[in-house]
What we know:
By secondary structure, the chain is an alpha+beta fold. It has twelve helices and 19 strands. The strands form four sheets. Strands 11, 12, 13, 14, 15, 16, 17, 18 and 19 form a nine-stranded antiparallel sheet that branches. A hairpin with a 4-residue loop joins strand 4 (about 65-70) and strand 5. It is globular, with a radius of gyration of 21 Å. The protein starts with 15 loop residues before the first strand and ends with a helix. The relative contact order is 0.15.
Amino acid sequence: MVEHNWAGNVVYGAARFHQPASVAEVQSVVSASAKVRAVGSRHSFNTIADTTGDQISLAALPRVVEIDAAAHTVAIDGGVKYGELATHLHERGWALANLASLPHISVAGACATGTHGSGAGNGNLATAVEAMEIVTATGDLVVVSRDDDAQLVDAMTVGFGAFGIVTSLTLAIEPTFDVRQYVYEHLPMSTAIEQLDEIMADGYSVSLFTSWRRDEIEQLWVKQRATSDDGDAGGADARFGATPATRNLHPIAELPAEPCTDQMGVPGPWHERLPHFRMGFTPSSGDELQSELFVGAADAPAAIRTLVELHDVLAPVLKISEVRAVAADTLWLSPCFQRDCIALHFTWIPAWAEVKPVVAIVESALASFAPRPHWGKLSTLDGTTIRSRFERLDAFEQLLKEWDPTGKFRNAFLDQVLI
């Protein structure tokens, strides 16, 4: 059976594919392998999970969700997806601080690639990691935790699976909460640029959906934490010159909204509003490609102006773009390391030959802002350029040599982009 990623644009080259049913089986595969990589929910659009040796999926591991109410943490297995975890947590009165737009992705894979949601005060999903259990190159099981060595956790959390197979994570949690989601249409582009900081701070999680037209941002999505006495929270009013939607919308307005989480200010649990899409719906597959760049928040207005100027170049291959805020963090290879960021996400048509030169044009046009790429998306940036934008990369590589001296977990992606 040929294994491939979610979008179908990457066919994996692994000689053998494994779905171990226990951590001991993971250790056995790793011990016997010369080259090995973990694959999560396969939502990465590049070859970060590929290998010529053994590829391991942790989806068959027994589900583990152990809540420590006193510590405000949850310990989970390495194969669980956010949708599964979120439902379990909410039923027991707990929540994660944030979620990505899709709940279908694996927790371990999302953290390893620096995947994020939105919110000026919210870090990426990996910032919730308090500890990791890892099967190392020797097959040993090792735990790293913030209690013992916070710097080591900062170094390894966004680690692409390069240190080993993550069989368990411990995440910070908080009491469950409700969210109201409002969608607005026709936000003036000039307002979006001039008041970007205010717009991004206007909700707990905020997203702009745009095709980079000169006149407007097509949709503004605002997710607000709800309380029992907030009424309708003023959601029916116009916002920043944008008008309230009169029906649920898909980010691509011409598509049906059924797969999307409820809007119109109807309150609901955090895990049914923070993602854009419902867990119960299978997301589209094979009909899109994605790339994403992170610029410093201070540079974002100028970066947006640059992309507006590129509208005619983007339009033939662009489905939609999303603009989100992500808070600074201390994770060495996070795209938001030590700087508040605006994430510029692009959903493209599924034709890399046509899309690739446009991605290169975007990356070149934004080069003066030193944007950092999303580790799970497509990019044409060379390794030298990427290395210049991640200041802890040298220290990361030194640590990697200590943990994996023979390069068991390395692959072509890591060799080309990092080392």
